[in-house]
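Consortium newsletter contribution from the modelling node. Members have asked for a concrete example of what our holo predictions look like. Here is one, prepared for the zinc ion complex that several groups have been discussing at recent meetings.
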Amino acid sequence: MSDMIRGDRRVLVFSAHAADFCSRAGGTIARLTEAGSNVHIVDFTYGERCESPALWAREPVPTIAQIKAIRAREIEAAAAVLGATSECLDFDDCPLVVGPERLTQLLDLLRRHQPDLLLTHWHRDVMHPDHMAATEAVIWASRYCFRPGIDGEAPPVPAPEVVFYETTLGTAPVARYIPSLFVDITSTIERKREALEKFDAQPGLAERYGWLARYRALEAQSTAWMKGCEYAEGFVRFGTEAAGFDGAPGFGP
Ligand SMILES: [Zn+2]
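And here is the predicted structure:
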């Protein structure tokens, strides 16, 4: 059970690379849109360098522009399966660097969309600096979007709830990611799989993140009284004790 799923939400889902939003939160996105909520996906990059292995294996390797074009089609197709809209900021990956101008762009994006919920990477997804850079920027924007007198084209809006999704598969213990909020995606796992299969540049996502969804469901059954849950996605709410803000370095402002 989760109060995260409602039909009246305005949700922005941030994703450092092309498919991150889908592998970590695709089932939840589908549940939100099925309930009637508005979900817009914002990819920071196309994952053109870091996360397009099948394209880099081609001979000859496509150009960066060609890779971006392929990945743009994949993002759009996957988002459509989930009932969401999408855009890519094309900030360039590996490394993803979000400087002052891009932060202002992000602040304006939040103020224009007026979301009440943001989904983004775990703030200490230490095995991929791009993921941490994305979330540092998302938190920056979420903590300044409501303040007057800060540069931007749009007026201030209320601060949205921020929720972190999974780390890269297999790295949760290293990144100390312990989900404390579970969403039952048993009813949407097939849509999630269908969406993940749009990402030809990253083969195997549906299978691998299917294992994770099964495992998170076991945790949800055992710790969140979610009997009958067969597939789940795990999250951590920003600002909760379980988020583990213990003074370790990670992000600003
Ligand atoms: Zn990624």
